[in-house]
Every structure is written in structure tokens, then in C-alpha cells.
Specification:
- Chain A: Keywords: Calcium, Cell membrane, Ion channel, Ion transport, Membrane, Metal-binding, Potassium, Potassium channel, Potassium transport, Repeat, Transport, Voltage-gated channel.
- The complex is a heterodimer.
- Chain A folds into two domains: 39-121, Recoverin, domain 1; 122-215, EF-hand (Recoverin, domain 1).
- The longest helix of chain A is centred in the N-terminal third of the chain and has 30 residues, at 2-31.
- Helices cover 67% and strands 6% of the residues of chain A.
- By secondary structure, chain A is mainly α.
- Chain A is built from eleven helices and five strands.
- In chain A, the strands form two sheets. In chain A, strands 1-2 form a two-stranded antiparallel ribbon. A two-stranded antiparallel sheet of chain A has the order 3-5.
- Chain B is mainly alpha-helical.
- Among the domains of chain B are: 41-156, Potassium Channel Kv1.1, Chain A (2-Layer Sandwich); 167-306, Four Helix Bundle (Hemerythrin (Met), subunit A); 315-428, Helix Hairpins, CATH 1.10.287.
- Helix content of chain B is 62%, strand content 4%.
- Chain B is built from 24 helices and seven strands.
- Chain B has helices at residues 4-15, 55-59, 88-100, 111-121, 130-155, 167-176, 182-204, 221-224, 226-250, 254-259, 261-278, 283-293, 308-319, 321-345, 357-368, 381-399, 401-449, 470-486, 493-505, 507-519, 525-538, 543-558, 576-593, 602-624, and strands at residues 41-46, 49-54, 75-76, 81-84, 208-209, 219-220, 489-490.
- In chain B, a hairpin with a 4-residue loop joins β3 (75-76) and β4 (81-84).
- Chain B is elongated, with a radius of gyration of 38 Å.
- The chains are: A mainly alpha, B mainly alpha.
- β4 (162-163) of chain A pairs antiparallel with β7 of chain B.
């Protein structure tokens, strides 16, 4: 019976310790609440009108009352658009592309600036943004590994059930085709200038870029 | 799809810019947004209480009343507002659902009133958030039980049997539900009576009766009236055996019945008699035989068929088994400890009753349960000291677990109920998520089949595409872009496994069979489904996956509330239209994918594939709409 009492007391001791840490964590979480800069400033920095910014912010604030998006929420949102496959890897790279300050969360300003570049920016700006998306380690070059990662992530979004079925190393073939097109000097990496030049030569891509103009 | 996701749609489409350099084909044209996208504030008047909200907020859920064009029916031109003659208090919750995406259940409201409001506004109750779901379900169950109490007793087991029920089924019904027929009731009471008689006879036959003339010793009645008692016993056993055999015959699953508790009790009740018949009149064996008669008392457990209370008690004990086990274990530990101590303490005393440790067990138990018979008493001082410690600790050891068992019983009981509820809810939730995912996939595949992805002039849009919201248009365009980027197409599970099979079997043979089966395609959807089943028998390996999808479909159908009609079904989750379209889409997608072989023989397949989609599209479009669009989609 003494043993029973002994084990009971030991258990209560163990449970008391983590609760104090939890309180601190909770306090910290409620403090993180971000407010964006004023509407005029954002209007000046981006290519959106005031009304569009208002609509965007209302939606953003509704989804993320704390004012920032963390990676998990981001992945969750993206996964809802692509229920067939696994969108988490691509969402991760996308998150890094939007998170210009690299602090693990996207504020409304970063979000809106990214959107402004993608939707209302010049062709060069869009291509630069895409280059930064592909350049995972931000060293100014896209090498084969980075490209393979990105392409694999995109194919992951398709999921398993595709037609024709994904046989063999389809991503690798895709990457080879890409490098053939982009890497003019066969250096094994693609620089920003090579990328922009190659894209501008590609009629098909230019036409596709035009299509995404009026998404708002 | 969740509401808030609509907010992120522009972002997802913008992010698609990242796919463009990789795309091997041109991107499709984005859907044209016909109406102006400026946001405005709407006024909603609910029985005099005015609410205002952004139009966008309501548009988040296009398959509800407020989110669809159905609200135009309630628009009041003079006052420029939407007027609803409904409960304004409830409307608050409905509107909060649109705003926050979570539906909460107001605890002070009547559950039926709440459900009626939800049904009016086109919101399905499954959307209720986790915080309120348990309360909602509990209240709903309570309500249903309350209403069903009167009707249940008549309906639940007493639904009339189908007229062609076999004798076995009828017998089983009679045994399980004695209220169904008078014969069953009579049988029920007769067996009850005989159980009572048998138990009373067992008790009475040990009572001492007045001795027969010429003898002084008191005889137990059993021996005095041995003939009478043995006749009674035989009669009871015969009836019990007859009942058991009848039950065994009528049981739908004899193995399960034989293993059930009640049947074991029945067998144990009648076995001693038969063993007695079989055994010879031997001196040594008859001693054991007498012991066997003790088992006759188990006949009293047969009453549990007649008494609900006994069954509940049995369930309780079963549920509390671990707690009872703990009590027993701790008692045993204490008994052993104290018995040992008492034995060694009393060892020195002369003529002590504590002759061995097992003998001391009796003393310890009697002391710990505070019975204190006094047949064994310690004499030495050490013994008395330890004896008092024993009695004190006995009170503690026994008094502690008992309230714990009592409260544990309540907790375990509720927990079991909740665990079952959660499991059922989980299954439903998983199924719902799967269906939503499939719905999204199949909506897109359906969209493809409807020719919604035409790159040419979009003037002649098929009728069934009209009901799609702007959000769905954009989402489908996004998925189409992804297809073009990767140069692969989305299909569903069924088609994918079919393609795998045909690839392994050799697509030429399957193509010829599919061609031949297609020439005679008729116009109705159901006959096509039947054809698909026939086709499937040829490729029998994939029938299992279809079966599981069918199950999900039927599960889905049963969840459809009675009110929604087939063509006007708003809610995407209980869409019967979608379900039927799902089958057709699978079918048409299946047929289209099989004849087109991979890239090596494109020429060969070209003449064939227009014919097949052509036949199918013509037939389907004549059922659904008046448009005839022939399109080669997969090449």
C-alpha cells in the first residue's frame, strides 16, 4: 500500500512542472499581434488601389486575426486548393519566397508586396520574383538540385492519380528540358540574366504571363 | 471548400506564376469575370432587426440561401433590403457563421428550432464547430430519445416481419421480443414461472420437515418427499432443455449463440441433471455428484433474460472490472502482509489459533473488513499492536477504492459512450472529408467533360456549367494550369487503377472490347452504369475499388435530408446531382482514357477516339442539355 501511495505522489510531481512553461508560452502567443503600416504608405509601395487593399486586408485579417501568417497555416491553405496531392513542399518554397524578411511569418505588407509584383508588376519584376522562388538558397544561381526540388514539389501537387500515370523519373526529364532551354552557356547553373533572357525569348511563356494580369 | 479559402484565391492564382517557366504547354485562358467585383454593404432585415454585412461575406458560402441567388426572392425593392420573416436571435448565429466560418450552437435555444433555422438557410448541421459539436449531439440525442420513447416501444423490434419469414426467423423473433405475439408472451411467462419453481424447490428441499412416523431425526424435505421433488426437478429440466434446443435452432448464428453468456448459463443449469443420469450409482462419484447439484442454483441467473436490472448490473461489473481488480489486488497484498506479521507475532504464544500463515489469512480478512468474529484473537502485545494497525488500515484500504469505483463507473460509462460517439463521428468526418475531396476532384473532372475548358469561343456554354460560382471557375482554371505545366492530367482513383490494369493486360484487347461495348451505347445514365459493371467483369481486378466508392456514394445518399430535390440541390455536400454526375464522369472518363494509348501510336488512336466521346457526349447531352458538343479532351 505504501508503494501505491509512493507512485501516486511521484506522478503528481511530474505533472506540475510543465504547466509553468505553458503559461509563459500562452502569454507570448497573445502578444504577437501585428498591425500593418498605413493605407497610404501601402498604396504608394504597391500597385494596388486603396479599395483593393481594403478588400485584401479584410480577407487577410479575417483569416489571420493576429496579423501574420505562419508556415503551417500557409501550407494548410494551399492544401485546400490542391486536395489531390501533397501541396506542402511547394507551399514551403512559396512561403520562403513571400517571406522577404525571413522571420518565419508573413506580415500583410510582405503578402501585399508579393501579390503586387505577381499581378501588377512589370515582366522583369515577375521574372525576378520567379527566379527568387526557384533559387532556394538565395545564392543567385539555380542549380540542378534546386530545380529538381521545385519540380518534384509541383508534381507532388498533382497527386498519385494522373493520366498518363507518372512513370519513370518524370521530374528529372522535366528538369533536363528546363536546363536545356535556360542554360545557354552550359555552365550547369542558371543565372538571373540567363533566366530572364531565355524567358523573354519564349513566346509561349510571355503569352501565359499576360493571362495572369487581371486576377483581382 | 472552406469559406476563408475563397479569400486566398487571388493569392493562389498569383502563385501559379511560379509554374510558368516550367510549363511545357500554353496556359489556358482565365475565366472572364462578368460582374463587377466591387464590394458593397447589404442590408438584411430579419423580423425588424436590421443587419448589415459585406456582400463578400455572404458570397463565401455559395451553396447556402444567403450566398446564392435564392436570396433575391426575399429582396424588397422599396426598402432596398432583404427581408426574412424568421427569428432574429437565431439569425445572429447564422450570420456569425458567415463571418467567422464557424457555426456555434446556442445552448439556451431549443435544438429543433435551431435545426429548422439551419435548414431554412441551407446550412448543414455537420458544420458546427468542435467546441459546440458535443453539446449539440447530446442535446439532439436527448431530444430524439424523448420523442421516440412512445413510438420506440411499439416499433423497435416489433416491426411486422416480412410475410415470407421462415419459421426460424419467426421463432427467433418470438424468443427475443416476447411482446410480439401472445404465444411468445405465454412462453416467456411459463419459463419464468418454472425458473422460479425450480429455484424455490432447490431451496425448500433442504428445509427440515417433520420426520416420518417412527423416526426421531428431522429429515430435510427433499428426502421426505423425494419422489415429488425429483419429479418437479425432471419437469423443470425438461422444459429448460426444450427451451434451449429451440433457441439453438432458431438462432441466426448458432456459434455466436452457443458462445453467448445466456446460453452458457442455460447449459450450466441443466447439465447436472444429465450428468446425474449418465453417472453410475457409485459411492465415491456420488459425492462429487452432490457438489454438482450446487450448480442448479445458477438457474436463478436465467432470470436475467426477464429482468433488465440484472443485465445492467452485469454490464456495470464488466465495465468496472479493472477497478474491482485493483481492489482485489490491494486487498490481497495487505492480507498477505498482515497475515505474515500476525503469524510471526503470535508464534510464541502457547495454544495459539494462528497455526500457519494461511490460517492467519482468515483473521486478517475478518479484521480488515471490520467483521471481527472473535474466533481468532491475538494474545501477545506485539500481536495486539499489529492487530490494531491491521484493522485501521483495513478501513482505509477498503474505504478508498469503493468511492473511486463508484465515480469511476460513472466516468467510464460516460467515457465509453463518448468514445463510441467520437469513433462514429470520426468515421463520418473522414468520410465527409473524403467526399469533399472527391467532390472537388470530380467537380473538376466533370467540368472538363462538360467542355468548360474549351479554348475556343465560349458563347456556347453548356447549361450545367452555369450554376458554378466565380470561385469555382477560377479554381478549375488553376487546376487546368497545373495540368498544362506538368503535362499530366488529373484522373480519379478508379480510372487510374483501370489504366494500370489495362496497361498490364495489353491495351489492344481491352480497346477492342471497349469499342464493341460502346457501339450500342444508349442514352440513359443507369443503363450506362450497368454496362460499366458488365465491362468491369471483364477486368475483374478493379471491382473492389468500385465497390468501396459505391459504398461511399450510398453512405452519401442516405445523408441527404428529405427536403432537397434533385435538380435544385444547393448544398454541395449532399448533392445527389453530383453523385449521379460522379458516376457518369467516372464512366466517360474511363472510356476515354482506355482507348488512347501512350505516345507511341497517336495516329492509330485518332480515328477511334472521336467516335467514342462523340457517341457518349451526344447521348449524355441529350439527357442533360440540348447542346451537342463533341470534343477530344485528352489528346
Amino acid at each position: 500500500m505504501g508503494a501505491v501511495v509512493g507512485t501516486l505522489t511521484m506522478q503528481t510531481k511530474q505533472r506540475r512542472r510543465p504547466s509553468r512553461d505553458k503559461i509563459d508560452d500562452e502569454l507570448e502567443m497573445t502578444m504577437v499581434c501585428h498591425r500593418p503600416e498605413g493605407l497610404e504608405q501601402l498604396e504608394a509601395q504597391t500597385n494596388f488601389t486603396k479599395r483593393e487593399l481594403q478588400i485584401l486586408y479584410r480577407g487577410f485579417k479575417n483569416e489571420c486575426p493576429s496579423g501574420v501568417v505562419d508556415e503551417e497555416t500557409f501550407k494548410h491553405i494551399y492544401a485546400q486548393f490542391f486536395p489531390h496531392g501533397d501541396a506542402s513542399t511547394y507551399a514551403h518554397y512559396l512561403f520562403n519566397a513571400f517571406d522577404t524578411t525571413n522571420n518565419g511569418s508573413i506580415k500583410f505588407e510582405e503578402f501585399v508586396m508579393g501579390l503586387s509584383t505577381l499581378l501588377r508588376g512589370t515582366m522583369r519584376e515577375k521574372l525576378e520574383w520567379t527566379f527568387h522562388l526557384y533559387d532556394i538558397n538565395n545564392d543567385g544561381y539555380i542549380n540542378r538540385e534546386e530545380m529538381t526540388e521545385i519540380v518534384r514539389a509541383i508534381y507532388d501537387m498533382m497527386g498519385k492519380y494522373t493520366y498518363p500515370a507518372l512513370k519513370g523519373d518524370v521530374p528529372k526529364q522535366h528538369v533536363d528540358a528546363f536546363f536545356q532551354k535556360m542554360d545557354k552557356n552550359k555552365a550547369g547553373v542558371v543565372t538571373l540574366e540567363e533566366f530572364i533572357v531565355a524567358c523573354q525569348e519564349d513566346e509561349m511563356m510571355m503569352r501565359s504571363m499576360q493571362l495572369f494580369e487581371n486576377v483581382m | 471548400m472552406a469559406a476563408g479559402v475563397a479569400t486566398w484565391m487571388p493569392f493562389a492564382r498569383a502563385a501559379a506564376v511560379g509554374w510558368l517557366p516550367l510549363a511545357q504547354k500554353t496556359m489556358p485562358k482565365p475565366p472572364v469575370d462578368k460582374k463587377s467585383r466591387s464590394d458593397e454593404i447589404l442590408f438584411v432585415n430579419v423580423s425588424g432587426l436590421r443587419f448589415q454585412t459585406w456582400k463578400n461575406t455572404l458570397d463565401r458560402y455559395p451553396d447556402t440561401l444567403l450566398g446564392s441567388s435564392e436570396k433575391e426572392f426575399f429582396y424588397n425593392e422599396e426598402t432596398q433590403e432583404y427581408f426574412f420573416d424568421r427569428d432574429p436571435e437565431m439569425f445572429r448565429h447564422i450570420l456569425n457563421f458567415f463571418r467567422t466560418g464557424k457555426l456555434h450552437y446556442p445552448r439556451h435555444e431549443c435544438i429543433q428550432a435551431f435545426e429548422e433555422e439551419l435548414a431554412f438557410y441551407g446550412i448543414i448541421p455537420e458544420i458546427i464547430g468542435d467546441c459546440c459539436m458535443e453539446e449539440y449531439r447530446d442535446r439532439k440525442k436527448e431530444n430524439q430519445e424523448r420523442l421516440a420513447e412512445d413510438t420506440e416501444a411499439e416499433n423497435a423490434g416489433d416491426a411486422p416481419l416480412p410475410p415470407d419469414a421462415t419459421l426460424r426467423e419467426r421463432l427467433w423473433r418470438a424468443f427475443e421480443n416476447p411482446h410480439t405475439s401472445t404465444m411468445a408472451l405465454v412462453f416467456y411467462y411459463v419459463t419464468g414461472f418454472f425458473i422460479a419453481v425450480s429455484v424455490i424447490a432447490n431451496v425448500v428441499e433442504t428445509v427440515p420437515c417433520r420426520p416420518i412416523k417412527g423416526s426421531i431425526k428431522d429429515l430435510p424435505c427433499g428426502e421426505k418427499f423425494s419422489v415429488a421433488f425429483s419429479c418437479l426437478d425432471t419437469a423443470c429440466v425438461l422444459i429448460f432443455s426444450f427451451e434451449y434446443l429451440m433457441r439453438l435452432y432458431a438462432a441466426p448464428s448458432r456459434c455466436d449463440f452457443a458462445r453467448s453468456v445466456m446460453s452458457v448459463i442455460d447449459v450450466v443449469a441443466i447439465l447436472p441433471f444429465y450428468i446425474g443420469l449418465v453417472m453410475p450409482e457409485n459411492e465415491e462419484v456420488s459425492g462429487a455428484f452432490v457438489t454438482l447439484r450446487v450448480f442448479r442454483v445458477f438457474r436463478i441467473f436465467k432470470f436475467s433474460r426477464h429482468s433488465q436490472g440484472l443485465r445492467i448490473l452485469g454490464c456495470t461489473l464488466q465495465a468496472c472490472a479493472s477497478e474491482l481488480g485493483f481492489l482485489l489486488f490491494s486487498l490481497t497484498m495487505a492480507v498477505i502482509i498482515f497475515a505474515t506479521v500476525m503469524f510471526y507475532a503470535e508464534k510464541g504464544t502457547k495454544g495459539t489459533t494462528f497455526s500457519s500463515i494461511p490460517a492467519s489469512f482468515w483473521y486478517t480478512i475478518v479484521t480488515m473488513t471490520t467483521l471481527g468474529y472473535g474466533d481468532m484473537v491475538p494474545d501477545s502485545i506485539a500481536g495486539k499492536i499489529f492487530g490494531s494497525i491491521c484493522s485501521l488500515s483495513g478501513v482505509l484500504v477498503i474505504a478508498l477504492p469503493v468511492p473511486v469505483i463508484v465515480s469511476n463507473f460513472a466516468r467510464i460509462y460516460h467515457q465509453n459512450q463518448r468514445a463510441d460517439k467520437m469513433r462514429a463521428q470520426q468515421k463520418v468526418r473522414q468520410a465527409r472529408i473524403r467526399m469533399a475531396k472527391k467532390g472537388a476532384t470530380n467537380a473538376f473532372l466533370q467540368h472538363k467533360e462538360d467542355g468548360g475548358l474549351q479554348d475556343g469561343d465560349s458563347d456556347s456554354t453548356p447549361l450545367c456549367v452555369k450554376n458554378r460560382s466565380a470561385f469555382e471557375h477560377q479554381h478549375h482554371h488553376l487546376l487546368h494550369c497545373l495540368e498544362k505545366t506538368t503535362n499530366h492530367e488529373f484522373t480519379d482513383e478508379v480510372t487510374y487503377s483501370e489504366v494500370c490494369v489495362t496497361d498490364s493486360v495489353g491495351f489492344r484487347t481491352s480497346r477492342s472490347t471497349s469499342l464493341s461495348s460502346q457501339q450500342g451505347a444508349t442514352t440513359t445514365c443507369c443503363s450506362r452504369r450497368a454496362k460499366r459493371r458488365a465491362f468491369r467483369l471483364a477486368n475483374s481486378t478493379v471491382s473492389v475499388s468500385r465497390g468501396s466508392v459505391q459504398e461511399l456514394d450510398t453512405l452519401h445518399i442516405t445523408k441527404t435530408p428529405a427536403g432537397t430535390q434533385y435538380p435544385q440541390s444547393r448544398s454541395s455536400l449532399n448533392a445527389r446531382t453530383e453523385d449521379l454526375k460522379l458516376n457518369c464522369a467516372d464512366y466517360t472518363a474511363a472510356i476515354i482514357s482506355i482507348p488512347t494509348p501512350p505516345a507511341n501510336t497517336p495516329d492509330e488512336s485518332l480515328p477511334n477516339s472521336p467516335a467514342i466521346p462523340g457517341i457518349l457526349r451526344n447521348s449524355r447531352s441529350s439527357t442533360y442539355n440540348t447542346q451537342e458538343t463533341v470534343k477530344i479532351s485528352s489528346l
